[in-house]
From TrEMBL:
Transmembrane regions listed in the UniProt entry: 21-41, 281-307, 328-355, 375-398, 418-442, 673-697, 717-737, 757-779
Organism this protein belongs to: Olivibacter oleidegradans
UniProt topology in membrane: Multi-pass membrane protein
UniProt cross-references to Pfam families, sorted A to Z: FtsX (PF02687), MacB_PCD (PF12704)
Protein name, entry field: FtsX-like permease family protein
Cellular localisation: Cell membrane
Segments forming domain MacB-like periplasmic core: 422-593
Top-level taxon of origin: Bacteria
Length: 796
């Protein structure tokens, strides 16, 4: 582009500076949204990709009808390694069922993720310890801290093997329980396999090779090119012919289960067990950011097309003096490119301002995709794509005008160009309406989840992460009495599972000589009262009846329906060689959130079922008076060392409403992200509408003036100018409504408990879209309709 062309481009842009500014701003928003979304998507898809074994690692799980588990028997891994040549390596991982303080001479760290694993796991997941080979070390057990925990407990040590193992105290300094630490592992990039502390052994399940010891996650590393369907069939055969026939698993529900393989690449975003909300967020952000960029490019293309009428003399003169169509097209493309570069600079500023907000919003470390050359590279790619998408067709149209027609004054924009501009604008509002409707549906579903009846109450309930086991009610009686003596504490209980925590174990119950699969929760007296659960019939456990401890059981209404019980009337049900009498039926409760159906559940005070099939009863729930929470917790903190000596001075607690809210934290992120990006989509669409309406209305200034001279009033002129645009947007809403309905229905299908998709939601979206569009257009329409006709017609 020579100097004259630069001057012409600058003068043209300055002459239409409002339109140019709006479109550059639209492009900048598109670029910024695209890069910010890409940063999140890049991070979420980078889990374990750095691992050279990434494509060949699988987690083995069990599926029986609708019940899935990622835990498998201890005997499975060695059996597979010995019998299946496609498997290069197999390893097991056991997770500690509790959280515990690790105390060094320097500091204390509350270990939440404590693992035990076979040494083969270190090779499978590329866990390295500088100065020591985990797989070949003569040590019977090798204990490693993560880089974060190691820095906290041993700030003066390098991330490597220690010269001699270091000792940390567990729970408290006087407990007498210790653990040997052999080193601090190297920092690892994002991975699904995370740990605070991990202990490696040659055989983590030594002496526990029975078939029913379902406490281990089993991972396999398969040979490249292995056919996974055939491998799954082989593993199923081995499981049913050997593992399922062993003494302790034979006859149980697990004996009828089948094997499934879940690839490592799916474990973060789309696991077989767990929520796929993370995948939906990635998908939604990818679509939204691409749409924003596409709409910004459309706005730019629209502007270039409507500017054609103001540049026809320039184009005609250049063609008369021999400028080829190719050179004209290149000139317009370079003009587009220059404006895209300006938009990219503004986008960089927006990204740098928004970066910390992204980190705070997603609560993530984005160091793997920081604001560096990687961002610049992505932005450069976006600039080139935007230039091509928004510049090629306008350049083709503008350079194709015939100079003879222009010189004769026979130039006109043409119906084809007008139809294209209308189609582009209509497409923008189809997209905008879909996302506005989706935003309204997501907000309505989230409000439903927050305000609807869950079957229990977590308000003012404190969850204490206790370490002492209270599997028998008699063991907890003294603790409960001491805690209830503190002013402000209303109810106290201890449980195996709590709302928002790990899902209850699914166990086999015998009723009327038939086997039923029910969730099993171990509770204590006052459990239902602490959580405000409603009793439908019968009664709950009573501390005044000693027989309740070992002879009584309470079921929820789903379990009662499955068993065919309407009223508890002395029915007997058995589990783990222990028979109970059903004494009460409680209302169903959504303990695991709204995405999963409520499962039939049984509650007992004491059971012969043992770990791992039935977890320990150690999580304490405390109902506190809402007017004295702070003072009550301060008093409890002071008295805790004397109340529970094993925990010592470390009273670790959180509020149960926060725990439960974590179940739909990802959904809340989706709502906020969708709201933010839908707003950007609407802003970009309105910018395009503003530019197009302003330019189109400006072309009708003389028509408006003539109509005013002939007696048209301001209201008539206002409706005349607004009508074409509102008709176009109305058509867009009609086309978009079934698409929005289908998209939102697909999202709602992921919830077991959901709102009814009513036409009112889409009506609100339509009114909102039309209102915003009317406000955008009306400024220009009013401005033109009140102009003095003499000022417009004086040159005629």
């Amino acid at each position: 582009m020579n100097t004259n062309n630069l001057k012409i481009a600058w003068r043209t842009a300055w002459k239409s500076k409002l339109f140019t500014l709006l479109n550059i701003l639209g492009l900048a928003i598109g670029f910024a949204g695209f890069i910010l979304a890409y940063a999140y998507i890049h991070r979420e898809n980078s889990y374990d990709r750095w691992n050279p074994n990434y494509d060949n690692i699988y987690l083995i799980g069990l599926i029986n009808k609708d019940n899935l588990s990622d835990l498998t028997p201890a005997a499975l891994a060695p059996a597979l390694k010995a019998a299946v040549p496609e498997i290069e390596s197999a390893g097991r991982v056991a997770r500690a069922p509790f959280e515990i303080p690790f105390i060094s001479e320097n500091d204390m760290f509350y270990i939440k993720n404590w693992l035990g694993a076979d040494r083969t796991i270190a090779d499978i997941f590329a866990i390295q310890l500088e100065g020591l080979s985990i797989t070949n070390s003569p040590e019977k057990s090798i204990g490693l801290l993560s880089a974060e925990v190691g820095k906290k407990l041993f700030p003066n040590e390098k991330q490597a093997a220690f010269k001699a193992p270091k000792i940390v105290s567990l729970m408290n300094e006087q407990s007498g329980f210790t653990e040997n630490i052999h080193g601090i592992s190297k920092p690892r990039l994002l991975s699904n396999f995370e740990y605070d502390y991990i202990a490696f052994k040659e055989d983590i399940a030594q002496g526990k090779g029975d078939g029913d010891n379902n406490v281990y996650q089993t991972y396999i590393l398969v040979r490249p090119g292995t056919r996974i369907e055939e491998l799954t069939a082989k593993i199923n055969t081995i499981y049913h012919n050997t593992i399922a026939k062993q003494r302790e698993i034979k006859g149980s529900i697990r004996a009828e289960a089948n094997i499934y393989l879940d690839p490592l690449k799916n474990l973060h975003l789309r696991p077989r067990i767990g929520s796929d909300t993370g995948y939906k967020i990635v998908w939604a952000l990818g679509v939204l950011s691409s749409v924003i960029l596409l709409l910004a490019c459309m706005n730019f293309a629209n502007l270039m097309l409507v500017q054609a009428q103001r540049r026809f003399k320039e184009i005609g003169m250049k063609k008369v003096f021999g400028v080829t169509r190719k050179r004209l097209a290149l000139q317009f493309l370079l003009e587009v490119f220059a404006q895209c570069l300006i938009a990219a600079v503004i986008a960089c500023l927006l990204i740098s301002i928004s970066w910390n907000t992204m980190i705070t919003f997603f609560r993530y470390d984005f160091s793997s995709f920081d604001f560096n050359m990687s961002v610049i590279g992505q932005l450069g790619t976006a600039v080139l794509l935007a230039t091509l998408l928004s510049g090629i067709y306008p350049a083709y149209i503008l350079s194709g005008y015939h100079p003879i027609n222009i010189i004769k004054g026979q130039f006109h924009n043409g119906q084809r160009a007008f139809s294209l501009r209308s189609a582009l604008l209509m497409f923008q509002f189809i997209i905008a309406f879909i996302f506005i409707s989706a935003m309204l549906v997501i907000n309505k579903q989230m409000n439903y989840m927050e305000k609807s009846d869950k079957g229990f109450s977590v308000d003012q309930v404190v969850h204490i992460k206790n370490l002492t086991l209270f599997n028998k009610p008699a063991q907890f009686a003294s603790i409960r009495n001491q805690m209830k003596a503190i002013p402000g504490i209303e109810e106290v209980t201890v449980v195996t599972n709590y709302p928002g925590g790990p899902a209850p174990s699914n166990e086999a119950f015998t009723y009327s000589d038939k086997t039923y699969s029910l969730d099993h929760v171990g509770v204590d007296f006052d459990y239902f009262e602490t959580l405000g659960m409603n009793l439908l019939s019968g009664r709950t456990f009573s501390s005044s009846l000693l027989s309740d401890t070992t002879q009584s059981i309470v079921v929820n209404e789903s379990a009662a329906r499955r068993l065919g019980i309407k009223q508890p009337n002395g029915e007997k049900i058995s589990i783990c060689d222990q028979t109970y009498t059903i004494i009460g039926i409680v209302k169903d409760s959504k303990m695991q959130g709204f995405e999963q159906l409520i499962k039939p559940t049984a509650y007992t005070l004491q059971t012969k079922c043992g770990y791992p099939n039935h977890p320990f009863k150690c999580d304490i729930l405390v109902k506190v008076n809402g007017h004295s929470i702070r003072s009550t917790m301060e008093t409890l903190k002071k008295q805790w060392p004397s109340i529970n000596k094993l925990d010592g001075k470390y009273l670790i607690y959180d509020f149960l409403d926060q725990q439960y809210a974590a179940l739909y934290a990802k959904q809340e992120q989706l709502r906020q992200a969708f709201t933010a990006f839908s707003t950007l989509v609407m802003i970009v669409a309105l910018l395009g509408l503003f530019s197009m309406s302003a330019f189109t209305i400006s072309l009708r200034e003389k028509e408006v003036s003539i109509r005013r001279v002939l007696g048209a009033n301001t209201r008539q002129l206002f409706l005349l100018l607004n009508k074409p645009f509102l008709q176009l947007i109305g058509m867009a809403i009609l086309v978009a409504t079934p698409l929005a309905w289908w998209c939102t229905s697909q999202w709602l299908d992921g919830f077991a408990y959901r709102i009814h998709l009513s036409w009112h939601i889409f009506a609100v979206g339509a009114v909102l879209t039309l209102l915003l569009a009317s406000i955008t257009i009306s400024y220009q329409a009013i401005k033109v309709s009140i102009v003095n006709p003499a000022d417009t017609l004086k040159d005629e």
